[in-house]
Amino acid sequence: MSTLIDSLIAALLLVNLGLVGSSRLTGCIRLAALQGVLVGLLPLVSHAGVAPRTVILALGVISLKGIVFPRLLANAIRNADVRREIEPFVGFSVSLLMALGLVAVSFWLGSNLPLPENQFPGKLVIPGALCTILIGLFLIISRRKAVNQVLGYLVIENGIAAFGLALVPDIPMLIELGILLDVFFGIFIMAIMIYRIGREFNHIDVDRLSTLKG
Amino acid sequence: MNPGNLLWVLLLLPALGGGISLLLKSGRSILRLVAAGVFLIATGTGVFVFSLSGRLPILSRGGWLHLDALTAFHLLVMTLVFLLCSLFAVVYFQEGGRPTIDLAQARRFGALWFGALTAMTFVLLANNLGLMWVGVEATTLITAFLICLHSTPVSLEATWKYLIVCSVGVAFAFMGILLIGAAAAETSTIAGHFLDWTHLRRIAGGFDPKLMKLAFVFLLVGFGTKAGLAPFHNWLPDAHSQAPAPVSALFSGFLLNSALYALMRIFPLINAAKGISAWGGRLFVIFGLLSILLAGVFLLSQHDLKRFFAYCSVENIGIIALGLGLGPLGITASLFHTLYHSTAKVLGFSAAGRIGHMYGTMDMRRISGALRFGRWWGVGLLVSLLALSGMAPLAIFFSKFLMMRAAALNREYLVLILLLFGSCLVFITMIRRAIDLSWGEPPVQAGPAAHDHRLEKTIVLVTFALLLILGMWQPRPVLGLIRQAAAIVGGQKS
After folding, report:
1. How far, rounded to the nearest angstrom, does the alpha carbon of residue B485 sit from its chain's CA centroid?
2. Which residues of A fall below an 8 Å CB-CB distance to B?
3. Of B132, B198, B266, B338, which one's alpha carbon is 20 to 30 angstroms from that of B227?
4. Is the ipTM of this complex over 0.85?
5. CB atoms B302 and A174 under 8 Å
6. Mind listing the pLDDT tens digit for each residue in B380-400?
7. Which residue range forms the structural domain that includes residue A144?
8. Based on the structure, what is the number of domains in chain A?
9. What are the beta bridge partners of residue A85?
């Protein structure tokens, strides 16, 4: 079981690097969707195994993060009619180097944080989750398209979901569904905002939204 | 019948109001519904809370909703803020008896306004920390579109910043809740409800202190972002200044407090863990002082009236956070300050909105003689500025004074000096602005003089009276509620 989990987490890390290195907006959206599916599969391989509760959760997460969110975001950028390439503040090779650094940091954090006994089989889950959260933050800070910030937020959410699964596997169903609902509405509202910003400004470059200062 | 089950009604009523406002067919009737509905809910909540005040805490069946003195106090502040803001919204969105927003905007406003009330009530009532988090995130999402009700480039910019910064911030708070959950899972014996606050409070003494410290850092950063604590406040001035005035008043009056409430809820759990009792309080003191001083400096250079009030919110949130770290007296002062600041700030933003409208600008350098020209709202602006500056005998003077006494009693002389310095800085800035805005010659090119609606006079008079009276005399039930609430935050077993 634990090799299966470790390979899922390894895939998660690879997707993180892909997100940092990818130069096309649509590619990034697909990668984030793939990551959502990977995170959705995690509960199925946890110690609870394939049970009604985990299956419902996995189905919910996979259908939202794998199908609904990518469609919403793809629609938003199509309607906002923006250029599809990413022009980051930090170049791609430097970004990749920094991402590798973040991987190292998260492994260090994973072994040094005063976390309780791991409830989850496999040693990679907590570092993998922390790394995903850090990469999400990095995406928010270093990219100028509004869509990238939404993707960064989604990546952070994925990381936190994995983190929660490793630390508190028995969160009541109601809370999980509540969180999922919040994330859904969050992405939905952000997609509407991207559309409205695109219509108002003819671009969605967040660094050019800088009238408000001080 | 178990009175706890009535708590569901408190949640359902505003949700119902939101639903109805989507069905109504004119902007005017929606605004009326908002005012009447919130008035009914506020009165109902007041009666409900006071009639139960001897029997708190109560739980709904299944333990999902929970009402104790801390919740009850915040419920009262929230409904007061909502009531004043809703009445003001009726005035603000109408001109000569006609709504200035179209039907689609009015529907959006009504639904989101009631939605925000539902979500904030949910934050206050939720017993389960996970669900409380869901509520805080929901308040962010629901209120986002209130900022850009009038869709302008700057308001979209402010909304985007608010959405991203607060969503990410609050996501970090969830890490903190997960860590508390991990600490609880080690010691807890019941499954399912182990994140319930009532349960956690009983067993918090046995939690791993290191884990709780880590959790508190995440929670403070996360909910602190939403509450507008410096240095995570940078979304706040933009959102407050670009939103329509009733929305700004609501943000400053209770949105920030609902995130602070979450911190107050969790604070006793952190304190209960062995050996870190003073540590959580120190963090509150540090971030509180930082907010007060930073906001004091930023206030000096503000020319936009609403941004000025927004930075003032950062300062006051800092004062409330500071008090949480100053022992029982400090916590009591924080709760008093919550009530006073919310009341004063609702008046402040309302007056700023109206005055800005009359002068056609929010630039304070171009507003003068407001006392004569703005009539009732001029008085409102002056009163709110004086109250927020901490001038006696208006209410905020007393909570600030109590705060300083708490610092002195704890022998925190450095804190006392910094607090005094910050307060003086704010006092001088506020008074200078108040004089410039209120007196002097009104500009010639200003629009027609205001016709004060009866409702407008009521809002100004009621808040003025509240600010004047509440500082010197509090009704016995309110005082009792604040004492009990302070005991809960302080972690004493009641």
Report:
1. 17
2. 113-117, 119, 133, 137, 140, 146, 149, 152-153, 156-157, 160, 163-164, 167-168, 170-172, 174-175, 178-179, 181-182, 185-186, 189-190, 193, 196-197, 200-201, 206, 209-212, 214
3. B198
4. yes
5. no
6. 999 999 999 998 889 999 999
7. 2-208
8. 1
9. A24
